[in-house]
Amino acid sequence: MRHPLKLRQAARLIAVGSVLVAAPLQARAGAIWSWSYRNPATKISASGTLTTGPLTAGAYPIIAIAGVWNGQSITGLEKVKTCCSPPGWNTNVLVDGEPRLDKGGFAFRAASGLKVNLFFKGGRYAYEIHHGPEVFGGAFVATPGQAR
C-alpha cells in the first residue's frame, strides 16, 4: 500500500520541479510593453505597445509595434537597418535595465507613410523623420506588461 503513496509524492515533486525550471524561462520570454515618447518643445507625442522577443545579449528585439505618432496611427515596424539616415541606423531593440533605447533605436511607419526613427544618442532621446534632421529632446518610457 505504500507504493502508490510514494508515486504520488514523486509526481508532486516532479510538478514542483517543473515550476521551478519554468520560472527563469518566463522571466526571459518576450513581452508586450507599453511605451510613450513626449517632446514638449516640438509638440510631438507618441504612445502604444511594443512586442518583443526573448532577451538576447542584453536587449529585447522589437518584433511588432502598435500605437500613434502625433495623432497618426502607427502601421508597422521598419526592418532593421532600413531607416532613416543612410545607412539606416535602427536596431529595433529595447536595452535591458531601465529599459531604454540604444543609439540605433526603433523605426516605424505612420498612416501617412511617414517613417520615424526614435533613438537614444549622446545621453538624450531624439527622433528623425525619414532623411530629415535629428531632433533631440523629450522623454521615452517603456513599461513591461504581460509575457507572451
What are the SSEs and their pairings?
Layout: H1 2-28, E1 31-39, E2 44-52, E3 59-69, E4 72-77, E5 93-95, E6 106-110, E7 115-121, E8 124-129, E9 134-136, E10 139-147
Antiparallel strand pairs: 1-2, 1-10, 2-3, 3-4, 3-5, 4-6, 6-7, 7-8, 8-9
Walkthrough of the structure:
This protein is an alpha+beta fold. It has one domain (29-147). The protein has 1 helix and 10 strands. Strands 1, 2, 3, 4, 5, 6, 7, 8, 9 and 10 form a 10-stranded antiparallel beta sheet that branches. Strand 1 and strand 2 form a beta hairpin. It starts with a helix and ends with a strand. The model is unreliable at 2-28 (pLDDT under 50).
Roughly how many Å is the radius of gyration?
21 Å
Biggest pleated sheet:
10 strands, antiparallel
Order of helices and strands: HEEEEEEEEEE
Mean pLDDT: 83
Low-confidence stretches: 2-28
What class do helices, strands and sheet pairing give? alpha+beta
Shape: globular
Notable features of this structure?
148 residues; alpha+beta; ten-stranded antiparallel β-sheet
Offer a quick outline of the entry.
By secondary structure, the protein is α+β, with helices and mostly antiparallel strands. It is built from one helix and ten strands; from the N terminus they run H-E-E-E-E-E-E-E-E-E-E.
